[in-house]
Amino acid sequence: MNSTKSRRKVAITSTENGDSGDKLDQLLLSSAISNGEDLSPFIRKTFASGKPETLLHHLRHFCRSKEAEIEEVCKVHYQDFIMAVDDLRSLLSGVESLKSSISNSNSQLQSVAGPLLTSLDSFIEARNKCQNIALAIQSLQICVKLMEICSRANFHMSKSNFYMALKCIDSIERDFIHKTPSSTLRRMLEKNIPAVRAHIERKISKEFGDWLVEIRTVSRNLGQVAIGQASAGRQREEELRIRQRQAEEQSRLSVRDTVYVLEEEEDDGYFVGNEGNDVYGNGGTATTNAANAALGFDLTPLYRSYHIHQTLGLEDGFKKYYFENRKLQLTSDFQVSSMTPFLESHQTFFAQIAGFFIVEDRVLRTGGGLITKMEVENLWDIAVSKMCSVLEDQFSRMRTANHLLLIKDYVSLLGVTLRRYGYSVDALLDVLNKHRDKYHELLLSDCRMQVAEALAADKFQQMWMNKEYEYSMNVLSFQIQTSDIVPAFPYIAPFSSTVPDCCRIVRSFVEDSVSFMSHGGQLDFYDVVKKYLDRLLTEVLDDALLKLISTSISGVNQAMVVAANMAVFERACDFFFRHAAKLSGLPLRMVERSRRQFPLTKARDAAEEMLSSLLKKKVDGFMTLIENVNWMIDEQPQNENEYVNEVIIFLETLLSTAQQILPGQVLNRVLQDVLAHISETIVNFLVGESVKKFSLNAVMGIDVDIKVLEQFAENQASLVSEEEANQLKKALVEARQLVNLLLSNNPENFLNPVIRERSYNALDYRKVAIISEKLKDPSERLFGTFGSRGYKQNPKKKSLDSLIKRLKDVN
Fold this sequence. Notes:
Layout (H helix, E strand, L loop, with lengths): L1 H16 L2 H16 L4 H10 L2 H107 L3 H15 L6 H71 L31 H11 L4 H12 L3 H19 L8 H25 L6 H25 L3 H19 L6 H9 L1 H21 L7 E2 L2 H7 L16 E2 L5 H20 L8 H27 L3 H28 L4 H6 L7 H23 L18 H17 L5 H24 L8 H20 L6 H9 L2 H11 L9 H7 L5 H10 L20 H16 L1
Antiparallel strand pairs: 1-2
């Protein structure tokens, strides 16, 4: 120890003699070792400076300082250590005694507890056996229930009750498969359950596929039945409207004091109910099933398949599959066969589409979300677009109005049917309205051919009717009778067969036009029907009659029949417009209030003009006898000239026939024209070169002739009205005024404007000048001047000469 101390002192002395930096390093190193810090910085610094001896020196110095401290601590605690060793030795002796006591107690316990442990082992063994038996019973119970469910699932599978089978499988998976104690049974279930589900999916998919095939035929039949019911409903509505119009008309005309009550029959069996109600019944399950069974309209396979797929967790996939397949079916329904005319296949085509959307409406309302309203509307938009395209194409090819009407009627019934299910059919109706003009053009073309055939077949003979039904069919049905009294039979009508034939054509045109315009979305269509009816009458019938009159009339009797036909057509035209208004649902009083001009005016005027021209030719043949008149007769004639007798006989003969055919107004116009022609012929004959001169007595003879003709006109008052008889008499005004002027004592009054306007307004002053110059007094005959020298000139002659002179000055 002394050596150590001496070494430490030497070190300290050497350190004190060292550099101050070494002291600082020593202090830092001592502090780092005391605090347990990392010495690597000091080591790295030492080796970097190349003086490792210094670091070793410091470490040795630190060790020596700690050794001294340890020695001091040991010195301090040495006594306590000695005391602890003594205590430990005394404790060891106590432990030995305690060990001996515990050994004795253990021996006694082992001898006492031996029987108890044997009993306890027997109890534990018995309890374990009971637990095993209970576990076995529980496992058996689980297996029995599992086998019962499996047996039930097999039974449902054998009966194709797939939903209950899936419920059993779900119960097995949910409640039993993880509790099954048999690993073999568990593996078997885990293997077969997916296979069973796949089998059910295949079976139900096949069943759904069969339903998809079957529903196409069902849809066609369903559409035909639905459209047929719509047609029956339309017919009932038409009958109701007819009864209503009849009641209104009878009430308006006050035929009898009767109160008319319209009883509308209930439409039993076809209406659209609310959600959950059937489209053919009143919403009850029995009615629904009966109606569906009658139509073969069964959605059970669809809903069953949908339910199974929901149970399988494939709901979204099935919805998509259903929509895509139905869309493909709809697309295939749009195929129009080029081998079959569309006229023959259009009912099947539209019935298939109608049935398709009736089914989809039902699925939408009762399918539990199988298809959405948006998807149905998308399918309907596709269908409407395709139907419009097909109609546009087929209508553009049609050349027969009746074919177009048949398709239009069926399309309108399709619209009525589907509108009941909430589908918008405006686009279809727009297509129909778009082809309204084409239909009427085709209809006019057909009617033009029919009218031409009817006129070509006419023999211009009065029509014979032997039975009352013929009279009703040819007269009463067109309201062209002149009396409400039914005539005796056989009855000779005042018209030819052309009239009822053409009336039937026009009536058919009106009915076809109204049929096309009705049920097309437009309520007030009378103006449209009237417009096309006007065209038919003016462009077709009137032109055909004009052509007939100008090319086929060669005799008076034929012309008379045609003129009589025109009079009957005038009554028939009123019927046509009333009939159009009646079919259009327009009150007749509105039509009667808006009377219009006779549309066959050109043909009527041409017929009367043709009859008048033929009669004039006949009259001209008799008027040639006027050349036999003695124009320089010495005595005043007491009787009429021969030509007048012949003319009167001809006219009376004509009247005996014409009054049975021609109406009074037509006969009056024709006679007026003929008499005016006779008057004009007399005046022109006096103007002509055939008469060089004539005497006053000849004028008196002409006066007698005119009086006979005037008397003939007055005698017609029994056939026509007195006013019309006066008009006939006025037809002779030119000849009458000329005779009055020549017989007047003061012919010069003709130059007086007032007197001329009152008494001679029908005379042409040029003709008066020529005729007046030809009037010669008998005293002016050859050699007559020798015996009358110094004779004073007649004032009348003087006035006449003055008139002639003044008229020549005017010329």
